[in-house]
Amino acid sequence: MTEHTVTDKGLVPNLQRDKNNNRLFDQESINWLTGVKYLKQCGMSVEDIKTYVDLCLEGRSTIQERYEIIMKHKATALERFEEAKRTVKYMEEKANHYLDIINGAILDDTNPGQ
Questions:
Q1: Which stretch of DSSP H or E encloses residue 98?
Q2: Domain-located, residue 26
Q3: Which terminal Cβ of the chain has fewer Cβ within 10 Å, N or C?
Q4: Could you give the C-alpha distances from 69 to 24, 28, 72, 107, in angstroms and in order?
Q5: For residue 105, what are the CA distances in angstroms to 19, 96, 110?
Q6: Dihedral angle over CA of 27, 28, 33, 35, nearest 10
Q7: Residue 7 above 80 pLDDT?
Q8: Domain of 82: which CATH number?
Q9: Whose CA is closest to 13, among 34, 38, 41, 33?
């Protein structure tokens, strides 16, 4: 997702611009950008993020709905985290296997043609 997508779709509320129409990012805008980045990494579509942003702007009456959205995507993030840990473990084991081959501790058993 590009900066243009984020700002042009209204994912950063109250974004200020200078006289040349350049975006001005204050701490609040940076906080919104950070949140949008994490929501996108959890698999949310731009449209769903926009819905979430709109709910935030509606105020207190939408807290329960926003909470449910966050909990759903937290679960997705945890699933991705567990998958990433499995991937890292596999890569560590594979690297150690190659080190054993390099150091002569075992024969090269990685080429099925031999």
A1: helix 63-102
A2: yes
A3: C
A4: 29, 21, 5, 52
A5: 68, 11, 14
A6: 120
A7: no
A8: 1.10.1660.10
A9: 33
Nearest 5 degrees, angle CA 7-CA 16-CA 64?
A: 60
SS (H, E, C) 73-94: HHHHHHHHHHHHHHHHHHHHHH
- Grade residue 11 by pLDDT with cuts at 50, 70 and 90: confident
Residue pLDDT, tens place only, 67-108: 999 999 999 999 999 999 999 999 999 999 999 999 999 999
Residues 6+ apart with CB under 8 A from 46: 1, 5, 9, 11, 40
Domain count, the chain: 1
